[in-house]
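Why do we bother with holo predictions? Because pocket geometry can differ from the apo form. Keep that in mind while you read this record for flavin mononucleotide.
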Amino acid sequence: MNRHTYRQVLGHFATGVVIVTAATVPGPVGLSINSFTAVSLEPPLVGFFPAVTSRSWPAIEQVGAFCVNMLGVDQEPLAHRFAGAVADRFAGVGWRPAPMSTAPVLDGVIAWIDCALESVSPAGDHLFVTGRVTAAGLRAENDPLVFAHGRYRRLAPDGWGGPDGSGFADG
Ligand SMILES: Cc1cc2nc3c(=O)[nH]c(=O)nc-3n(C[C@H](O)[C@H](O)[C@H](O)COP(=O)(O)O)c2cc1C
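The structure, written out:
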C-alpha cells in the first residue's frame, strides 16, 4: 500500500482534539492528541494512542493518572502549542487541578475527563493507552474543535446540507 494514500485516507476521518495532561513532580505536562476515543461505558474507560517517541508519555505513565481536555472551536492555538517545541507549554495558560489526578484542566475547554491509568499496550509505532474515568465534567458551552484533512475545522451550523442549502434529506 502506498504510504501517501494511507495517510490521505486516514485524514478523511474527522476527529476532535484533546490535550492530555498530568501533574508530574517537576510540573505539569501535556500533549495534543486526536486519537482519543470512548472505549467502555461499564466500566468507564477511554483511550488514546501516544507515539512511542512521545516525550511526555513516560512522565504521564509514571504518574499513573491523567486528564483529557476536550478543546473548543476557539482553542486551535492551544492545540498548536501543545504539539510544538515551546520551552514551557503551560506558560501563560490558565488551569486548575482536576479533582482526582490533580492534572491540569485547561481554561476554556468544553469538557474534561479525569482518569487513572488502566492499561498500556504496544500498537506499532504508537501505544494504546486506556484510562479508567474517575471524574468528568462540562465547562464551556461551545462547539468542539474538529481536525480533518490535516487541518483544524469548524462544524457547520445545524441544517447546512450543501452549498445550495437544499440538504440531503430523503425525498
Ligand atoms: C491535532 C493534533 C493531533 C495529534 N494527535 C496525536 C496523537 O494522537 N498521538 C500522538 O502521539 N501525537 C499526536 N499529535 C502530535 C503531538 O502532539 C506532538 O508530537 C507533541 O510534540 C508530542 O509531545 P511530547 O513529545 O511532549 O509527548 C497530535 C498533534 C496535533 C496538532
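The mean pLDDT is 94.
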